[in-house]
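Can't paste images in this forum, so I'm doing it all in text. The chain is below; anyone willing to post the predicted structure tokens underneath?
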Amino acid sequence: MAFSNVLQPIGLLLLPITVCSAACDGLAERGEPDELGEGIAREGLAGEGSGESGGQFQLGTWPPSGGTLNTAHLGDSPLMRLLLPGYPHQHLSDDAFIEQVEVMVGGQYQPAATIEAEQGELVAVVDEVARRGSELVGSRWWLTPDGSEFVTITDYAEQEGRFGYQFEYEREGELVPDPEVCPPDEDGDGWTYMVGDVRVDVGDGSITDDPGALLVACASGALGKAISWGFVPWHQGRSRDLDLYQTGVRTVRADYCGDGLSFTEDGTLIQVSNIPAGQSFVAPEQSTEAVFGPDGAICLSNPRVEGLSPLCKIPECDASIDPLSALGVLTWTKLAPS
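Text version of the structure:
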């Protein structure tokens, strides 16, 4: 029997990110950056809030359902972490460094002075005017100084303050499927949330502050599914809460040991209880799986998938589990109804 927990609308509040400085003056001289490149198929781009498949590779609907079908995948890809101009720290080998962002204004591409993620919505300032929403569809996020490779926003949607984007990779004027920015999952979700100023360690799954970085949190991976389930890194009216976000990611992946290893299979149905995330049990009579925190499971009774048990030692959950633990970061999970 399938079920879906009801998510309360949650505004994703993200930090501003500076994109351009005086160094942008020279970048604007790239080979014909002010005209829409010939051969780039744009007729399929969808309008604001459509949530429909607009580009060549776009799939799924926005917003993601929020149902508790888990995934074993973190959602890392070669284009998962975008470093914007002026990034103050040493970048890693698997980071994608953005040389410049250009937005189509009045039929010509113009360089963006800044890019911010305001409550999950990207906002680009071009010629002192804020551009957002469908205005950013078709924007070019250059990966190479010679102007041969970039990522582009091919679709945008918004519902109840939740903002979704679809990115695709372009090489020499054509959309290409490799590398995939957000591979679709079993539900066809190729959408992404945008999370500012964080670093995700793809080895151990830890999430830390990192000003100047922009995370492409694919809805098909645990980084996006955790947000769909309500484990957002920023709550309106609350301080930044990366612990809650990290707990959600570990819960999605059954990362019991908190070391980045997953002990589940894609599409496994579970029950989740966490009040800040807006999640509660549908069938509370079912057996407890575990109680998760930001560093993994603090107790474990029934592994999510039979035969997939962690090697680390975790105490068994007992009758002393406090239901009020769901008020904070800790997340109580139960097996799905039979």
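The chain has a mean pLDDT of 80. The radius of gyration is 20 Å.
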